[in-house]
Amino acid sequence: MIADEPDQLLHVAQMLRDRRDRAAALAALIAELEAEGKTIVEDAGHYANEENLYVSAAKRADGEPATDEDANAYLISTDYRGQHNAKPVITGWQDLGFTPRYERYDGGTQAQKGPMTDEQKAERKTLIANNREMESATQVRREFVKTLLSRKTAPKGWQYFTVHAITHDPETASGYDGKVATEMIGAKTGEDTDRWGWNPMRDHIAKTTARPEFSLIALICAGYEKTIQKDSWRSAEKRHFHYLNQLVPWGYTASAVEQIIIDKHSAETE
To answer: Bridge partners of 87?
Structure first.
């Protein structure tokens, strides 16, 4: 990939770092569970057609809800932050006398039964890969903005970018993440994170009148960053196009998954 697209070096490097960190954390968790003599399973569910049943979805033979003490296996899941968690599971639950707590309700539609098709598996694989790429791109993107705002002069066209954001995407100004904005301009975020309404960006502005244009750009960028999630490539919202389409002329190289958002709207006019 690097040989074919050298401009993707930063994105690929970040994805490799993230992949390495996730793999290390996963290996450590698996080693910990196996050291405790626990079995690891690859899948589990909540209904009667599942081979492995989550403890939270099982009842004992006497009708009481199963507890973690009934678990004889664990399934490792990964949340949106890339953190791994071990969920208690009962494998072979039928033979052990357990029953499902819930019956599948599909609202009158046919619920899928049995394993996923090859097409569904491919879609799932793409979803996971793109979500992870988006998470890595977020790190690269924020680092780019931080470097951009460390220069002596503000980037060309910043005035229109900020006023366009405030008028077209007002949530960027009203709902920005103060910590992200402060980090983008290289200022200290402080330690008072437990204070109600804590906003290091507000504290920074109160202490200095220097380079206000940089603070404004950081505030707007942090506002966009707060709305971008790992699966934002799926909806490809116009507001995210506004953001990415400005970063690119400023020198940012979009990742392949960010390019999905740009391509969707690049042919449109305001």
So the answer is: 75
- Residue 99, SS3 per DSSP: strand
Contact call for residues 233 and 260 (beta carbons, < 8 A): yes
Span 169-216, pLDDT tens digits: 998 888 888 899 999 998 887 666 556 667 888 888 988 898 999 999
Q: Distances from the Cα of 9 to the Cαs of 15, 203, 233, 243, in angstroms?
A: 10, 36, 20, 21
Confidence of residue 111 (pLDDT cuts 50, 70, 90): very low
Q: What is the pLDDT of residue 192?
A: 61
Going by the DSSP 8-state scheme, the letter that residue 82 receives in this structure is S
CA–CA separation, 223 and 215 (whole Å) = 12
Return the residue matching tokens 């709902």. 175
Give the span between the Cα atoms of 181 and 73, in whole angstroms: 43
Q: Using the structure block, give the residue that is written with the tokens 């190289």.
A: 253
Q: 157-163, long-range: CB within 8 Å, 24+ apart, which pairs? A: 157/246, 157/249, 158/213, 158/216, 158/217, 161/217, 161/220, 161/246, 162/216, 162/217, 162/220
Compute the distance between CA of residue 140 and CA of residue 134 in angstroms, rounded to an integer: 10
Establish how many alpha carbons lie within 13 A of residue 23's alpha carbon, considering only the half-sphere containing its beta carbon.
Answer: 6
Contact of 136 with 15, CB cutoff 8 Å = yes
Q: Are strands 99-100 and 58-59 parallel, antiparallel or unpaired?
A: antiparallel
CA distances from 5 to 132, 144, 254 (A): 19, 19, 12
- Is the pLDDT confidence value at 137 over 60? yes
Residue of 124, 128, 120 whose CA lies nearest to 22: 128
- Residue pair 141/247 in contact by the 8 Å Cβ criterion: yes
Cα–Cα distance, 247 to 253 (Å, whole number): 8
List the structure tokens of 80.
Answer: 């949106």
- C-alpha 241/C-alpha 246 separation (Å) is 8
